[in-house]
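Q: What changes when iron/sulfur cluster is included in the input?
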Amino acid sequence: MNKPEVLWEITHKCNAKCIHCISGAGDTRNNELTTEEALYICDQLAECSKAIHLLGGEVFLRNDWKKIIERIHSHGMYYSIVTNGIALNREKIKYLKNTGLKNIGISIDAGTAEVNDYIRGVPGLYNKVFEVMDILAEEEMKFTVISTFNKLNIHQVDLMLGNMINSPAKVWQTQGAVAHGRMAKDLALNEFEFYILSLFLSVAKKKISEDILYIAAGHDQGHFSKVIPHYTVHEKWEGCYAGKATFGICSNGDIQGCLCMMSAEDFVLGNVKEKPIKEIYDVENFCSWNHRDEKYKTLKGFCKDCEHGYQCLAGCSSIATALTGTVGENPQCHHRIETEWKTKQPANEFEYLFKELTGGFVDKNGNVFLASGNMLTKSLISKLNLDAHQQKLLSYISNV
Ligand code: SF4
Ligand code: SF4
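A: The predicted holo structure follows.
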């Protein structure tokens, strides 16, 4: 394995209560790493990793967060932090800048304060994060806004995009909420919402210059579409990164291929309290469940017979396990949706249009065309018998 990037949950303690939190953060775990153990991790990662991404819970709720950061900085390592922003102020941002922080990830999960603060469980957080963004920009600290989509905020995606463009944010990381931890399955996006969100973001990426806003869609945002222009951060999808380019360390010292799977105990690969990190990950069978040949044998259902199966390996393993209970099958896939809708019988006008969309194309200017060759326009949408939810979903695409 080449030197990996390591995501490290330094504490499970959190002062927000996000409904989509995949670790169900809140209280400290029983056996979180001591300061000495955490500093030893920093020393080991300096030898064997190329970047550390600190996250929680909430990073700044660990009493010794400064000691950890100073140890990482003393090694001259690249490091970033993901935070809910509650504890950030100018003084802390200056300190972080002076201790070599390269990027801050900060979350906004809606287009209005009301929805955002409901999702995050913290009154006032939406406005606070916008204030923090202004300070970050003034202090010339690089930052990324992270938005996690679910049924409660999908209807604000157009508002969110506009807010991002009008804010100091330069990078917008988008991802779907995955039903692990505190996230309820029935709040996850369904196939229509997932596909239409992807179409919206890909068209937005075509139309909006990267100098204004770089849309960085995550590992989970669908694969091998013939319709949706490529818009994820990966030039070419070659399967889940867990245990390959990256691994994660939980606040109790457990090592996992990816922290997005941390609520699944079956995927724990060792514990840093028991062995040096290098002895856990630098072995041939590290994260063997994600080795190409082995994982290929586990593919199931549609993924088993998929023409992209060996390359794709059922997409994001975290989503696959959340939706199907196995890493071998993943319904949240553009290729699968497009293939299945070729032969499905639409039950209503919305489904008819969806079928047309999944067989259509997007031109170089970001205009969306249906399989019939007609462009998707507001007037076309208004002629259909749609409910308010469907109308809104479709109107995003024709409005970008
Ligand atoms: S059907 Fe499965 S294997 Fe094929 S592209 Fe989609 S997620 Fe990947
Ligand atoms: S589980 Fe998903 S988020 Fe984690 S490395 Fe794999 S693809 Fe990426």
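Observations recorded in class: The first strand starts at residue 5 and ends at 9.
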